C-alpha cells in the first residue's frame, strides 16, 4: 500500500513540476514576443494550456512568475564567461575577445534584450534585473581597461569599454549595418583616441 501511495505522490510532484515548467516556458515565450507589459496571467495560462487559477497556485503574483521566467532565461542564456579572454595577454586583443563574445551573445539573445530595454521604464520588476546586468558590465569594463587605475585615461577607457559592452550600443551599431568586425574596429578607434 505504501508503495502505491509513494508512487502516486511522486507522480503528482512530477506532474506539478511539469505544469510549473510549462507556465515558465509560456511566460518566456510571451515576454519575448509581446513583452512583459502586454503579458497577462490569462495569456500565460492560455499558452501553457492551464487555467488562470493553476498559474496562481504555482506563482502567487505576476512578480513571482516574472522572477521564475527571468531565472530560467538567465540559466539558459548566461552572459559570456570572462575565462574566455582573461588569459589573453595583449590588452587590445583581450578587449576585442570580450567584445566579440558579448556581441555574439547579443546576436543570439537580441529579442529578449530588446524587449527588456524597451520596457524597463514601465515595468518596475525589470529594473533590478537590468541594474544587476549593468553592474556585471561595469565590473568587466574595469577589469578590461588598460592604463593605471585612477588615471584619467583609465577612467575614460572604463567608460568607453562599458559603453561598448552594452546591449543598446550593440543594437544601435547593428541597426546601422555594421558587422561585428566593423563594430570591433570602431571600438578600437574609440579606445585609441581615449588613451592618447
UniProtKB/TrEMBL annotation:
Residues 17-77 form the HTH tetR-type domain. It comes from the Bacteria. The keyword Repeat does not apply. Keywords: DNA-binding, Transcription, Transcription regulation. Pfam families: TetR_N (PF00440). Residues 40-59 bind DNA. InterPro entries: Homeodomain-like_sf, HTH-type_TetR-like_transc_reg, HTH_TetR. The keyword Transmembrane does not apply. PANTHER family: HTH-TYPE TRANSCRIPTIONAL REGULATOR BETI, HTH-TYPE TRANSCRIPTIONAL REGULATOR RUTR. This is HTH tetR-type domain-containing protein. It comes from Arenimonas soli.
